[in-house]
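BUG: 3D viewer hangs when loading the predicted structure for this chain

Environment: internal workstation, default settings.
Expected: structure renders.
Actual: progress bar stalls at 90%.

Input used:
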Amino acid sequence: MAAETASTRRAPGGSELRDDVTEALAAAFFEELSAVGYGRLSLEAVAKRAGAGKAAIYRRWPSKRDMTVALLSRVAIAAIAPADTGTLRGDLEHYLHDAVRALTHPLASRIIPDLMAEATRDPELAEELMDSLRGPRRENAAKILRAAIDRGEVPADVDLELSLDFLAGPLYWRLAVVHLPADDDYVDRLVTQLVRFLALPGPST
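Structure tokens produced before the viewer hung:
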């Protein structure tokens, strides 16, 4: 058998999976999901759009839900990753600008509302998306706060859970719920308020 290269990986059964086919399927999935929504999404249509057979999908993902969760997780977590700029303000600016780009991407702006609605009808999908998306993304944001605590910019007794809500909530509300723009000036003002909030002394004991 030929040796594995950077362009192949192995399925659980041992067969080689070509990365170019995987990426074509991923691109076709997002285009199809954007076009028809999760409820009407069919794996046959994804395979046809990618120029592949349906079996190519099942060698990688056992179901539509598995494909959805896996691909969304990969994209969403990579899109908003923490950066170590050396300051809380710099880290927040990088993180929130990445979030703006992710939430305003043409495909994301159509996919996210559809999946949010679908999750209210499909508890299992909602749970899997929560486990695969919310946890890792909040952990990325938590790294920013822990680094700021280590530098002495944020009190060690800060309410980490509440602070993570403040990091994610305003921007998501503005872009995904009320559909208002978030330009550089807005992000700058948001970062200023977040730094002020995070630098406040913790509750007295």
